[in-house]
Specification:
The structure is a single chain. The relative contact order is 0.10. The chain folds into four domains: 10-157, 3-Layer(aba) Sandwich (Alpha-D-Glucose-1,6-Bisphosphate, Chain A, domain 3); 170-246, Alpha-D-Glucose-1,6-Bisphosphate, subunit A, domain 3 (Alpha-D-Glucose-1,6-Bisphosphate, Chain A, domain 3); 267-382, Alpha-D-Glucose-1,6-Bisphosphate, subunit A, domain 3 (Alpha-D-Glucose-1,6-Bisphosphate, Chain A, domain 3, 3-Layer(aba) Sandwich), CATH 3.40.120.10; 390-484, Alpha-Beta Plaits, CATH 3.30.70. By secondary structure, the protein is α/β, with parallel strands linked by helices. A six-stranded mixed sheet has the order 1-5-4-2-3-6, with helices on both faces. It has helices at residues 21-38, 55-68, 81-90, 123-133, 159-169, 194-199, 222-228, 231-239, 267-280, 297-305, 317-327, 359-373, 378-382, 405-418, 448-466; strands spanning 10-13, 44-49, 72-78, 95-99, 108-114, 153-155, 180-184, 204-208, 244-248, 255-258, 264-265, 284-292, 309-313, 337-341, 347-350, 390-396, 422-429, 435-442, 473-477, 483-484. The chain contains 15 helices and 20 strands.
């Protein structure tokens, strides 16, 4: 397994290894060397970023490394992560790289790569790159290409408009004339694209958190904030009498809706609504929905009641994509869409041109499904996907010692054996942040408040092991949205 690459590339705190220019330079050299070893011509890489102030610094260093390895760089500037994935396929590039930490705060950043298919790199390739980028004592220094073999930088911002046009082209008959929307852009990459996207459909768009400063990305804004504290944007939805609200994260691969009352419509709801919509139009690939172990059991019940197949993967959109790709066959029609995703709003609509989660594309399909359903409201449209009591706790654990898998398995078994009505528990460490996660779900015998109290006790054990006893614990109410504060 790679040591630096997690489930979504390399993440960390800016200014601390590996999120420093020196490592980004080495990473570019390493990625360039790996690409060159596999290419029959000069490789090309699309490089984009979100709006973080640290983005240009890391992008410049990564680009320098790629150029020094003889790789051409197509600079996409500020763009959504799925926009880079789309560009890789459309321009027949060898790879894509995104400087972003997605929904994480501005103090953090990350670097992730896509292969020529627009899909995140396999772990074996990540490990090969990492081995070259993070040399051990005694390893030879990196080599550089001669002047005439250095790569070139080309401006690819002209593809931004083509990307937006491609999203709209999937819905030629969709109109939102006279519809009021509140759109939260997280002060991230969506700020450049989302308000214009929905305005072109005729909507009256109230854009909030759409003025990136470089330091305000995801700051009390965006999809994760809306899931935890829906009252702020929910209040705007009500005051503007909007049809619904839409919130993206920093790189716009996630999206969360708010109904007309300000209620959270999350990834589980969207997967259920889209499964019903696609299956009704014979567009659902393999008659299946793919999601992760963190989903709510209400989604599983809804999918199975509809006669569809339900597949579950480990946490991480890369695993969802892998499963969706395994469901494709040589005779799968181009019109079919593979549907998968996570409760967080990271929804994957896999087809011949799209291979990663795209918040804006997901939003358009949800809106289209809502409009064609003729439901009176978004709350009515989402009501069919009922939810069982569920909480997810996230505890800061820093870099201290971690409980091993055997200990976590034992804690899960003890909780299930001793708690009536506790149907599922999932304890794990985050693959992108220094956090411990605890998901607990009940059949109704345990209330959300009781689950939250249990989750807090478990998180304190993980923090104690890490020497982080006084660190923060946030507990998400996955049934109704919002944060909980158990005693």
């Amino acid at each position: 397994m790679p040591r630096l690459f997690g489930t979504d590339g390399i993440r960390g705190t800016v200014g601390e290894w590996p999120l420093v220019p020196e490592f980004a330079l080495r990473l570019g050299q390493a990625a360039g060397a790996v690409l060159a070893s596999r290419a029959s011509k000069r490789p090309s890489v699309i490089v984009g970023r979100d709006t973080r102030q640290s983005g240009p610094m890391l992008q410049s260093a990564l680009t320098a490394g790629l150029l020094s390895a003889g790789v051409d760089v197509l600079d996409a500037d500020v763009i959504t992560t799925p926009g880079v994935s789309w560009m890789v396929r459309r321009l027949n590039a060898d790879a894509g790289a995104v400087i972003s930490a997605s929904h994480n705060p501005v103090e953090q950043n990350g670097i992730k790569f896509f292969g020529a298919s627009g899909i995140k790199l396999p772990e074996a390739v990540e490990e090969e790159i990492e081995t070259l980028a993070d040399p051990q004592p005694g390893d030879p220094p990196p080599t550089f290409s001669a002047a005439k073999r250095l790569g070139r930088v080309m401006d690819s911002r002209g593809m931004h408009e083509r990307y937006i046009e491609s999203l709209l082209a999937e819905h030629p008959d969709l109109r939102l004339d006279g519809v009021t929307l509140v759109v939260d852009c997280a002060n991230g990459a969506a700020s450049r694209f989302a308000p214009d996207l929905f305005s072109r459909l005729g909507a009256q768009v109230t854009a909030v958190h759409a003025s990136p400063s470089g330091l305000n990305i995801n700051a009390e804004a965006g999809s994760e904030f809306v899931r935890q504290r829906p009252e702020k944007i929910g209040g705007l939805v009500r005051s503007y009498e909007a049809k619904f609200g839409i919130a993206f994260d920093g790189d716009a691969d996630r999206v969360i809706f708010l109904d007309e009352q300000g209620g959270v419509v999350d990834g589980d709801h969207m997967l259920g609504m889209l499964a019903r919509y696609f299956e009704g139009r014979r567009m659902l690939m393999a008659h299946a929905v793919v999601t992760t172990t963190m989903r709510n059991s209400g989604l599983k019940a809804f999918v199975e009641k509809a006669g569809l197949k339900f597949h579950e993967t480990p946490v991480g959109d890369k695993y969802v994509v892998e499963k969706l790709m395994s469901l494709q066959t040589a005779v799968t029609p181009k019109a079919m869409i593979g549907l998968g995703g996570e409760q967080s709003g990271h929804v994957v609509l896999l087809d011949s041109e799209h291979s990663t989660g795209d918040g804006m594309r997901t939003a358009l399909f949800v809106i289209r499904a809502f409009v064609e359903s003729r439901a009176g409201s978004m709350s009515e449209f989402a009501a069919g996907i009922g939810k069982t009591p569920q909480v997810i706790a996230s505890a800061d654990v820093g870099r201290g010692p971690r409980l091993d898998r055997a200990s976590l398995d034992g804690m899960e078994k003890q909780a299930l054996d001793s708690t009536p009505g506790l149907t599922r528990i999932n304890l794990r460490y985050s693959g992108t942040e220094p956090k411990f996660r605890a998901m607990l779900e009940s059949d109704g015998q345990q209330s959300e408040e009781a689950l939250a109290a249990m989750a807090l006790r478990i998180c304190r054990l993980a923090q104690s092991a890490a020497g982080a006893d006084r660190a923060e614990v946030e507990i998400q109410n996955c049934t109704r949205g919002g944060l909980m504060r158990p005693h």
